[in-house]
Amino acid sequence: MSRPLSESLKPHRARKRFGQHFLHDQNVVQRIIGCIDPQATDHLVEIGPGLGALTLPLLRAAGRLEALEIDRDVIPRLVSSAAGIGELIVHETDALTFDLSTLRQSNERLRVVGNLPYNISTPLLFHLLSARGVIADMHFMLQREVVARMAAEPDCGDYGRLTVMLAAYCRVEWLFDVGPGAFRPPPRVHSSIVRLVPHDEAPFKIADPKRFSAVVSAAFGQRRKTLRNSLSALVDAIGFETADIDPKRRAETLSPEEFARLAATPPPV
Questions:
Q1: How far apart are the first and last CA of the chain?
Q2: Span 133-140, average pLDDT
Q3: pLDDT at 11 exceeding the cut of 90
Q4: Cβ atoms of 232 and 219 closer than 8 Å
Q5: Which of 62, 169, 243, 253 could serve as 38's disulfide partner, Cβ 3.0–4.6 Å?
């Protein structure tokens, strides 16, 4: 049964289970919009629009936007706020399971944006990687420490599985940081804006994506151990020799391309 509009537009309280922190600082909003640079020809998809801080300026610029929102209670307010601004299509769904390829029309590529819930940001990023073939670029607000891991270089503490897996499929650009005061309620962490651009051509060959993922996961699952120990079930002495990688090294010292070389070797018999 539908609810009266007046009831649906009561002040909305952020829900902890959805990881909600609503962006309200207009200076930050405009800076994000400037980084995205939305155009009338863009097919924009927003994940977690919430109360519309980014939705409305994106609509004004592009005229049309599709949004994925899991919280049914914010949708009436969002639709009401967008009335007369542009065409807003809201999908009440969980972005973790939604197939973005179903939104694609013809050969166009989607531009994905969002203030991602910090409690599911890493699994959501991996889910989006599976749809990278239909995505032109992605602009996200994430916890700053997550963005630090995404953009890290080898031989530093932030470098890990997320870094390597993203590097294989996307270019990562750390754009700028955002303080807790830009949100209601303010989170306990700082945030950052990041741009991800799927590679048109892979920077290195990945012979078997599943094996590549398994090798990277195993190596960083025991990152204090040498590769000989952490990868003992996946790479043997011949494999290390074939890949020209010293088995005494540790995971954080390998470049993404070196992980690809290890994963290209046959598994132990």
A1: 61
A2: 97
A3: no
A4: no
A5: 62
